[in-house]
Automatic annotation (TrEMBL):
Residues 81-145 form the Pre-mRNA-splicing factor SLU7 domain. Associated with the spliceosome. This is Pre-mRNA-splicing factor SLU7. Residues 136-147 have a biased composition (Acidic residues). Keywords: mRNA processing, mRNA splicing, Nucleus, Spliceosome. It holds the Pfam family Slu7. Belongs to the SLU7 family. It comes from Lactuca saligna (Willowleaf lettuce). InterPro entries: Slu7_dom, Splicing_factor_SLU7. One of its GO terms (molecular function) is pre-mRNA 3'-splice site binding. One of its GO terms (cellular component) is spliceosomal complex.
Length: 153
């Protein structure tokens, strides 16, 4: 309890400037205003991470001199496009990929129609009208399609 109180007082004194700043293992002063979670955060080591933005010291030997094959974390693509090509919002779009969406929609539509047909046959069987089941179902589908066409026009 006493140690914790002393540490808190020392931390406050460092923030105000009455006590000397803490020193890391390289002899650099540690900024007392940096939160603990930021100073202890590990460096993710991505290719786009530069030495200026790092919170920790760099490796003693880089991958260049250790003869280890370290693969890049990110794929950086470069394009040689003209003025219009840079501003083309559909650049790289493959219209054949949309065919999958259409197929999935049509499959769902077919499954919905089959489900509705099964429901109608069950209702008609419950009523006892098993003779003209197919005719009634096909008439209902025709009526549904014509009502949709009428609303669209």
């Amino acid at each position: 309890m006493e140690d914790h109180r002393k540490q808190m007082q020392l931390k406050e004194a460092r923030k105000v400037g009455r006590a000397p700043a803490e020193v890391d293992e390289d002899g650099q002063e540690i900024n007392p205003y940096i939160p603990q979670y930021m100073s202890s955060a590990p460096c993710c080591g991505a290719m786009t991470n530069t030495t200026k933005t790092r919170m920790e010291r760099p490796r003693k030997l880089g991958a260049k001199w250790t003869s280890k094959n370290i693969a890049p974390n990110e794929k950086i693509e470069t394009f040689q496009l003209d003025y219009d090509g840079k501003r083309d919002r559909w650049n790289g779009y493959d219209p054949t990929s949309y065919a999958h969406v259409i197929e999935r929609y049509e499959a769902c539509d077919e499954a919905r129609k089959k489900f509705l047909k099964d429901q109608q046959t069950k209702k008609l069987e419950e009523k006892g009208n098993t003779q003209n089941v197919e005719e009634a179902v096909s008439d209902d589908e025709d009526n549904e399609e014509t009502s949709v066409l009428e609303t669209l026009s």
